[in-house]
Every structure is written in C-alpha cells, then in structure tokens.
Amino acid sequence: ETGVTQTPRHLVMGMTNKKSLKCEQHLGHNAMYWYKQSAKKPLELMFVYNFKEQTENNSVPSRFSPECPNSSHLFLHLHTLQPEDSALYLCASSQVSRGTLHQPQHFGDGTRLSIL
Amino acid sequence: GQQLNQSPQSMFIQEGEDVSMNCTSSSIFNTWLWYKQDPGEGPVLLIALYKAGELTSNGRLTAQFGTTRKDSFLNISASIPSDVGIYFCAGPFAGGTSYGKLTFGQGTILTVHP
Known about the structure:
Helix content of chain B: under 10%
Helix content of chain A: under 10%
Oligomer: heterodimer
Shape of chain B: globular
C-alpha cells in the first residue's frame, strides 16, 4: 500500500546522534499517529495528531519529539536515544470526525531503527 | 483501562488447513478491525466490522462481530504459505481527547508449513 509512505526504511544511529523519521500520507486524512513496535510486544501508541494538533502524548520520553507541519506530513525527531529504543516505528493515518463510524487507520511500512 | 485479549498467540499449521483466532474486549465496541502484518511491512487492513452479529468475508477470510459486542473472530479457510504473518485485532479506544485512537490485540503469529 503506498497511501502512507515512511522514510527512511532503515536507520542505524549512535546514542549521541540526531535524526528524523518522516511520514507522508496521500489519503486526505486528518489524523496521524506514531507507533512503536518492539519484538514480541503489542503496538504501542506514542503520539496522536488530530487536525495538525497534538492531542495525545502517551508518556513518551522527551528524546522523541513529533512535528506535524500540515495534515499530510508527520515527523519524529530523535536525539540522545537509548539502545532500548531500537524498534520498528510505524506511522498511520485515518479520517476522524465526531459522530461517525470509526474509520480504520492505514499504516506505512515503518522505519526499522537500530541504536548502537 | 481497555484491554484486548487475542488468542491464540501463535499457530503452526499445515497448508490447506483452516485457521480460527479470536479477540475479546473488556468493554463494548462499536467497531472491530482485523489487520495482517507481513514481515518487514506495516499492518494492512483485512476486514472492518461495524454492526453486532455482522459476518463479512474477504476472499478466504471471514470475520464476525460478536453479538455481545465484546468479541470478534477471524477465520481463514484453506490456508496457503502467503498467509504467514501476524494478525491483529483492533477496536476504538474509549476516553481521552483524541479521535481515531485504536486499541490493538497482542497479535496472533501464523506459520504455515507447505
């Protein structure tokens, strides 16, 4: 599925580096999400943006900093990460509105992050 | 808080066999979603259910929205090697200030032996 595109697909970085993950959705959705997926663990929601406003920060450490400049783009800025932050980071988008049926989220293929 | 219990956690089956997995919730849902995640890729939506008792098919896949609104089932008939992957159930997360949040099950890892 090419509706949600994430770059890069793989990233290896040291603990002192600064890098950014990018997500772009071509579906015209108004909500975007960052998830962390570690081995043998359920998907962990990190951040939610509704209509470009951050509406959820799920107790995520400050070394992860999200940015949503418009409804089509979402970034995750990384700095001073720890080895336990190595995981697959997934971006998703959906169309949300009050009083309507819950619309599914559409996912990108993720960025596989490895912290040395 | 909301919890989704998905079972089984893993399945090892022979090609051609049928597969069943289920998901139960601690609260009532008005939507059930089933996703599949192939290795190295993101989850892809398989089936969406919006009505209690609803039975929906997508090829060899059939999913049902339980009548209690607290459970859902996914069946795969005549499995093939490309059915390998992780299957997730998901439902709307109640509470908080965000729209569109989902709660996910822990996933069922399916392995199909040729």
